[in-house]
Each structure stands twice: as structure tokens, then as C-alpha cells.
Design a protein that fits this description.
Length: 419
């Protein structure tokens, strides 16, 4: 069977840490979409690691880690990540399997990302500029270069043809660049990638399912950044929802058992786009500081705001969430009072789901509640303060799903199983 773990907000919900906590229950952890725009942070015994491409199960040998066909891979980032893990004593190469169908991010994809973003005026997406959008565009445009192409004799021709196309696309932009600065590292990284274990991952995963192995599918970004269901056009370029696990790994829906949906006790967003419950005041700043809300990939300060229940419920529905996991409730402990949105006021009345567009005319309707005292030392369900317990019950009632785990801090050990 396969369980899926994904984010229910705009990414950065703490997926990396939870995958790391759950991995001992699984034989295989597989990433299914996105690319190095992700930054999954894991803290073990006070030591912090940020993973961009490698599944967060890598810290639990002997579990196998798979990068699925739905992921887009920057060979330079992958090489750096592997070398830095190996330097820290983690065995990677024997445990990392890469789909031959995964698409490659070329240096010119990153240039296209930067040129297109800088040409936008007030409507910038706030992209991480890792080349994600242009690579997925080449995938759907049927021009892309895949991991499996590395074994082709004409691999360099494939590369140069694609680069020529990109250079033609870059011409109209007022954008200066020097491609030669990136190409040496890129080709060295391609050779490195060619030496890694490249597989037919859909076959591998289906064989594993048929021999009763347990697989955890690790999502990246979050539901509100999904290309179809997110706050379009301020979204990423892949399906971040449960359906993405099927297409991004080649596994059928009938194999899915649990869907773990992760959300923060509040909301954050990095990059542009609508954010109905955003806080522009001192409280928002306090949450940012207390929660360390700065992008793991870009270092950008994250926008902060209250929990948005209509969007959370929408995400639960789209993903078929069976188990909720709430993270970072500890961050709100210093506030006397907290708020959450239970509906939106729209020109047409009160709405409790996600509208087509979250325009300025749609305002969140907030309810307020007392916060809780410091919970960093809580180690059993009985020690959970009443106000937090009430907050948990309120979310469960609204979404119709149970919260199974509570994360009370960044370390592996600060995780409480509620059920
Ligand atoms: P892109 O995927 O880099 O093109 O970025 C598109 C939007 O998704 C931007 O607003 C990014 O800030 C956001 N984004 C992409 N990846 C992540 C992530 O892993 N966490 C949070 N936001 C992300």
C-alpha cells in the first residue's frame, strides 16, 4: 500500500520533518512532483538539514528513496545535495533511485524563469527562479530532456537543440546573461547524475506494492499552490494534490491507503498572490520571528496570517485527507489571543468554500479565541492545554477529519501522536 503526505496550505507546513518522523514505518519514500523549489527542513539532534530534491526519508536507512517521474531535477542541485549528505555521513547512492522519466532542469530553464518573471510588472508570481515553470512547459510542450536521455549517444545534440530553442525564446527579453558561466558545472553534474541509479520507477514501485512493501509518497509545495486548484496564476507548475502522486509515480488510486494532510496552526505564504487572512501588523511580524518564517530555499521572509478554515476544508476535500497533522501550534503560544477564518463575506453572501478568485471584495470572517501557554515541554496528550485542545476539536469539527499528530517544535522528538 501507499500513503500520501502533502501540504494543505501554501507550502512550508513542515512536511520534511513529518516524513522523517514517519519513515521508520515505510520501506520506500518517494517524491512525486515539484523540484528544487522545495526546501524540506529536518532537524536531528539540533543539526539542521534542508533537502530540495532528495526525499526526506534519506535519514532513515535502510529505507529506499525514489525521485519519481513527476519531479523536475536540477542536476547541479542534486549533486550538491548528495555530496553534502555524504559529507555528513549519510549513505545516499546505494539508497537513491531516480526515475528515467523525470525531466531535467537546464541552465536556460532558469534563465527563462528569471527573464519571464522580471518582465512581469505588478503581477510577478514570486517564483523561486529555479526553472520549475519553464521545465514543466517543455514537458507538456513535448520538448523536454529526461534523465533517461543521459544514456543516448546524441545526448549533447538533445541538449543543444533545446538550448537553441530557449535562446530564441530569450531574445525578445531585455535580459542579460552569460550561459557559459553555468554550462561547465551543468555538464559535470550530468555526468555525476549518469553515474547514479536510474530506474523504471513505475515498475519498481508497482513491484514493491505487489510484494506488500509500504511506500510513503512525499508531496512538495502545498494544495493552494496546485496548478489546477491553487490561487492561479500565483501557483507552481505541478499538481501538488493527491492526484499528483498517481501521475508522478505511476501508481493507481486503488493502492492509496492514508492521505496525511499537513497544516500549520496559522498560515504562511512566500511569493505573491492572494492571502485572505494575512496580517500586516505587529502580530504578523511576531509570528514570522517566533516561527522562523523565512523561506528554506530562497531565504525570503514569509507572509503570515491566521488559519483559514474554508481553504483548509477545500484542501481536505480535494486530497481525500484521512489524517490531519497540525504543526507549529507552539509558535502561537506567546500571543494572548488568536483568530481563525471560518467563512468569507462576498458580494453574494457568506461563503464557506474556496471561490474562483480570492479578490479584495472577499473578506475573511474571523472568530477569536484565547491562545495557550508554552507547549514546548508537552510530551503526552494529557498535558495539552485546554485552549489548544479546544482549537484542535474546532478544526476537526469544521473539516470533518481527525488530527492524528501534533508537531510541537522542529525536532524529530517534538511530535505527539494523538490517536
Ligand atoms: P515556482 O514553483 O518556483 O515557479 O514558484 C511559484 C510560486 O510557488 C511562488 O509563489 C513560490 O514562492 C511558491 N513556491 C514554490 N515552491 C514552494 C515551496 O516549496 N514552498 C512554498 N512556496 C513555494
Amino acid at each position: 500500500m501507499i500513503d500520501v503526505l502533502l501540504g494543505l496550505q501554501w507550502g512550508d507546513e513542515g512536511k520534511g520533518k513529518i516524513v522523517d518522523v514517519l519513515t521508520p514505518e515505510y520501506d520506500i519514500v518517494a517524491r512525486y512532483q515539484g523540484g528544487p523549489n522545495a526546501g524540506h527542513t529536518i532537524i536531528i539532534d539540533g543539526k539542521k538539514s534542508v533537502l530540495h530534491l532528495i526525499p526526506s526519508g534519506i535519514f532513515h536507512p535502510p529505507s529506499i528513496c525514489v525521485i519519481g517521474n513527476g519531479v523536475v531535477i536540477d542536476p547541479v542541485t542534486l549533486k550538491k545535495e548528495i555530496l553534502s549528505l555524504e559529507e555528513a555521513g549519510v549513505e545516499v547512492r546505494s539508497r537513491l533511485l531516480i526515475s528515467e522519466r523525470a525531466h531535467l532542469i537546464l541552465p536556460t530553464h532558469k534563465l527563462l524563469d528569471a527573464a519571464s518573471e522580471s518582465a512581469k510588472k505588478g503581477d510577478k508570481i514570486g517564483s523561486t527562479l529555479k526553472g520549475i515553470g519553464p521545465t514543466y512547459m517543455d514537458k507538456t510542450g513535448r520538448n523536454g530532456m529526461r534523465v533517461g536521455d543521459l544514456t543516448r549517444k546524441d545526448r549533447l545534440d538533445v541538449y543543444h537543440n533545446l538550448v537553441q530553442k530557449h535562446l530564441r525564446l530569450l531574445r525578445p527579453y531585455d535580459f542579460e546573461f552569460d550561459l557559459s558561466l553555468y554550462e561547465k558545472d551543468f555538464h559535470e553534474a550530468l555526468d555525476f547524475l549518469a553515474s547514479l541509479k536510474k530506474i523504471n520507477s513505475e515498475q519498481f514501485l508497482n513491484d514493491a506494492l505487489n510484494s506488500s512493501k509500504k511506500i510513503l509518497a512525499e508531496g512538495a509545495q502545498g494544495t493552494m499552490l496546485d496548478i489546477d486548484f491553487g490561487t492561479y496564476p500565483f501557483v507552481t507548475s505541478s499538481n501538488t494534490t493527491t492526484a499528483g502522486a498517481c501521475t508522478g509515480l505511476g501508481v493507481a488510486p486503488k493502492h492509496i491507503r492514508k492521505v496525511y494532510g499537513i497544516f500549520k496552526a496559522y498560515c504562511t505564504r512566500v511569493g505573491s498572490g492572494p492571502f485572505p487572512t494575512e496580517l500586516y501588523d505587529e502580530t504578523g511580524e511576531q509570528i514570522r520571528k517566533s516561527g522562523g518564517e523565512f523561506g528554506a530555499t530562497t531565504g525570503r521572509p514569509r507572509r503570515t496570517g491566521w488559519l483559514d478554515l474554508p481553504l483548509l476544508k477545500y484542501a481536505v476535500t480535494l486530497n481525500g485527507v484521512t489524517d490531519l497533522i497540525m504543526t507549529k501550534a507552539d509558535v502561537l503560544a506567546f500571543l494572548p489571543q488568536i483568530s481563525y477564518a471560518w467563512a468569507y463575506q462576498t458580494p453574494d453572501g457568506i461563503l464557506e468554500t474556496c471561490p474562483f478568485e480570492l479578490t479584495k471584495e472577499i473578506t475573511p470572517l474571523l472568530r477569536h479565541t484565547n491562545s495557550w501557554e508554552d507547549i514546548s515541554g508537552v510530551s503526552s496528550v494529557e498535558q495539552i492545554p485546554q485552549t489548544l485542545s479546544d482549537y484542535i476539536k474546532m478544526v476537526e469539527k469544521y473539516t470533518g477529519q481527525n488530527i492524528t499528530y501534533l508537531s510541537l517544535g522542529p525536532d524529530r522528538s517534538q511530535t505527539l501522536k494523538l490517536r
